[in-house]
Amino acid sequence: METAPKPGRDVPPKKDKLQTKRKKPRRYWEEETVPTTDGASPGPPCNKKNRELRPQRPKNAHILKKSRISKQPQVPKKPREWKNPESQRSLSGAQDPFPGPAPVPVEVVQKFCRIDKSRKLPRSKAKTRSRLEVAEAEEEETSIKAARSELLLAEEPGFLEGEDGEDTAKICQADIVEAVDIASAAKHFDLNLRQFGPYRLNYSRTGRHLAFGGRRGHVAALDWVTKKLMCEINVMEAVRDIRFLHSEALLAVAQNRWLHIYDNQGIELHCIRRCDRVTRLEFLPFHFLLATASETGFLTYLDVSVGKIVAALNARAGRLDVMSQNPYNAVIHLGHSNGTVSLWSPAMKEPLAKILCHRGGVRAVAVDSTGTYMATSGLDHQLKIFDLRGTYQPLSTRTLPHGAGHLAFSQRGLLVAGMGDVVNIWAGQGKGSPPSLEQPYLTHRLSGPVHGLQFCPFEDVLGVGHSGGVTSMLVPGAGEPNFDGLESNPYRSRKQRQEWEVKALLEKVPAELICLDPRALAEVDVISLEQGKKERIERLGYDPEAKAPFQPKPKQKGRSSTASLVKRKRKVMDEEHRDKVRQSLQQQQQQQQQKEAKAKSTGARPSALDRFVR
């Protein structure tokens, strides 16, 4: 009989199911496992022919080839390693020796900073304090960005210097026109209009358009850069003053009887009869208010966006023919015949302040663009510059031979005074500094008495209206060299102007917010707040904001007995009492330290009676 073969000899044993699974192929980056005899994991299967296993070559490896030119062994090239682009800041591969953003000078940052960091944050809740800290951080970041963007302002202000100590006041306009380029020389011109003079003039906010009106009814508006006439009419009535409104498309003319509004085509749009016998006009661009001063002694504010009169204030000082505005806080300055200058706001029926400036009547008033200095001239032939930062004291005084009838400040702080048919200009150290009245910067004589003065925005040009017409003078260093294209763009199109009008109307500032210090709007009126709180307590009979008495929460398992509740209430009351005592002790210590510091500063000898001093 045949016997079945044993599984250990000729017949191969059956493979286990786990061994029959297909093995995972080895990748080229994995290390090769060497098979061992101790039942370790076997290596890859061999072919029928006994071939040697060759490891696969990585893709980035380089094969050494024999050079046909030189017999020297070649050095394998190292594969390129990936580098962080932030650490490699130049094409050459060298690191930046000054990493990070460029530092900004502290003086430049402070010029754009609007938060006073010397004042500490008030004690408030954690949420409110965190909001204040975030606002301060955002303001600091904004000021740094503004300081960095100042590098993009390539234009620089002009200047005029004499050779070898030459007096610049002796340089005439003809010499300046010959020295400047053709484009700047074209900005100097004379309009001979003796038939309808004297003239009052006004430039638009962008500095591109000019409007002037004569005493005999002649009104015209033009693009003075290209000399393109926009409109020219004769109102057949005396024109006392003229002003552009928020754009060059609307024009306000103070005629002999009423106030009229015209468009840039000379078409009459409105006749405002409530503003009668107007002598002077001022327009507040951020509030859309047209301020008028009349012969009857009334100061009237007209909101041109809705066509309503916001306020009509009686100055009680007789005829008003001297008026100027403060561009910083939109406060109106009125000059009176008793030598005082009063400051007005539409939110108050009484003047905000009164300044005694001259012994005689005030003839002209002007305020610089920063709202820091005010120049006045009176019948006493004196020209004074006052500080408006709370002191209202004269900084400098100069006696003029004929007295100044008209004053105006430029964007860079130059002061011009019209005295008869002579125009004198004084310059200071720059923007934000008072002009020096010792030596005039420029002098020019006109063909007739001066009737109106204004510097052109963003141009070194002074417009003068006189009895013989209109003169455009060149004044180097008068205008701001760089303009904000989103606010006052001289090159804007009609579509851009319309979009700007919509944005300006949305950002219109209410008339009630006009005050002497605009920074006070961001502060809390503590006195009014406490007074309102007292009135509310008296009206209700109790304090609705008072802290409710402590009520312990009930507990389970017999822990809410009457004795435990009273005990917990007394514990909370004791803690509150300790806090009050601790605060009172701290206040007493602070007062004691202040008294000791005062005693040390005065240098007086201590006495036993000091304990009775309160």
Automatic annotation (TrEMBL):
Main location: nucleus
SUPFAM superfamilies the record matches: WD40 repeat-like
Keyword Cytoplasm part of the UniProt annotation: no
Region named Disordered: 1-103, 538-614
All residue ranges annotated as the BING4 C-terminal domain in the record: 440-518
GO CC, one annotated term: nucleolus
Cross-referenced InterPro entries: BING4_C_dom (IPR012952), WD40/YVTN_repeat-like_dom_sf (IPR015943), WD40_repeat_dom_sf (IPR036322), WD40_rpt (IPR001680), WDR46/Utp7 (IPR040315)
Coiled-coil intervals: none
Highest taxon in the source lineage: Eukaryota
Biased composition (Basic and acidic residues): 7-19, 572-582
WD repeat start-end pairs: 355-389
Subcellular location: Nucleus, Nucleolus
Keywords: Nucleus, Phosphoprotein, Repeat, WD repeat
Biased composition (Basic residues): 56-69
PROSITE patterns xref list: WD_REPEATS_2 (PS50082)
The keyword Nucleus is annotated on this UniProt entry: yes
Pfam families: BING4CT, WD40
The protein's role, per its UniProt record: Scaffold component of the nucleolar structure. Required for localization of DDX21 and NCL to the granular compartment of the nucleolus. Part of the small subunit (SSU) processome, first precursor of the small eukaryotic ribosomal subunit. During the assembly of the SSU processome in the nucleolus, many ribosome biogenesis factors, an RNA chaperone and ribosomal proteins associate with the nascent pre-rRNA and work in concert to generate RNA folding, modifications, rearrangements and cleavage as well as targeted degradation of pre-ribosomal RNA by the RNA exosome.
Quaternary structure annotation from Swiss-Prot or TrEMBL: Part of the small subunit (SSU) processome, composed of more than 70 proteins and the RNA chaperone small nucleolar RNA (snoRNA) U3. Interacts with DDX21, NCL, NOP2 and EBNA1BP2.
PANTHER family to which the protein is assigned, alphabetical: WD REPEAT-CONTAINING PROTEIN 46, WD-REPEAT PROTEIN BING4
Name the record gives this protein: WD repeat-containing protein 46
Organism the protein comes from: Macaca mulatta
Gene: WDR46
